[in-house]
Amino acid sequence: MKKQNARQRILETASKLFGERGYAGVGINEIIAKSETAKASFYHHFKSKDRLCAEWLKEMHQRSEKNHDEILKQASPPIDKLQAYFEYLKEWLTTNNYRGCPYTNTAVVLEGGSQEIRSEIETHKLYIRDFFIALARDFVTGNDARTLGNTWFVLYSGATTEAQNLRSAWPVDVALEAAIGLCPSKGAAPA
């Protein structure tokens, strides 16, 4: 069997380690050793740990973007899309041992850090907010959709953080209940 290229091995190793222990908890030497890559090869593909982290966040965002777009394109009622999203969040958190949002976890440890990493975090967070605004347009229009979507985004963010803090899924259940409670006509087809 052909061995993966060094760049992909490094990214996959970093993804696993950053996901398990966070960006600050993993060093370059460990990534190099576990990816079975030479130090020169690492620096050929990634100029720094910050550059590797930014690439990791970008790849996760691209996968996330695809999943969110698929939800928006579903033919199901809007209320079902909203509920499915929060149910997916709950499943993802429990499957990942309540590690929480990799973007938030990374932002917390940057201490000013890399603008490139911060840019990837902001891109992802604003995309998630825009996803909720797009979903809200199935319920309301104009500025009301923006307000409802922003509110759902904050509920989602808070639920993700508190599920991580408390190592429990109940914050996601509460956020979903609140999100549904904010839905005009509970997701009836728009007039």
SSE layout:
Layout lengths: L5 H16 L6 H7 L4 H7 L3 H25 L4 H18 L6 H8 L5 H22 L5 H25 L3 H12 L10
Helix pairs in contact: 1-4, 4-7, 5-8, 5-9, 6-7, 7-8, 8-9
Radius of gyration, rounded?
A: 19 Å
Assembly status: single chain
> Could you describe the largest sheet, including whether it forms a barrel?
none
Beta-strand percentage range:
under 5%
Low-confidence spans: 187-191
- The fourth-level CATH homologous superfamily of the largest domain is Tetracycline Repressor, domain 2
Number of helices: 9
Provide the helix percentage. over 70%
List keywords for this structure.
Arc Repressor Mutant, subunit A; 9 helices; 0% strand; disordered C terminus; Tetracycline Repressor, domain 2; mainly alpha; 191 residues
In a nutshell, what does this entry contain?
Helix content is 73%, strand content 0%. With 191 residues, the protein is mainly alpha-helical.
How would you portray this structure in words?
By secondary structure, the chain is an all-alpha fold. α1 (6-21) packs across α4, α6 (102-109) packs antiparallel against α7 (115-136) and α8 (142-166) packs antiparallel against α9. The radius of gyration is 19 Å and the shape is elongated. It has two domains: 1-46, Homeodomain-like (Arc Repressor Mutant, subunit A); 58-187, Tetracycline Repressor, domain 2. It has helices spanning 6-21, 28-34, 39-45, 49-73, 78-95, 102-109, 115-136, 142-166, 170-181. Helices cover 73% and strands 0% of the residues.
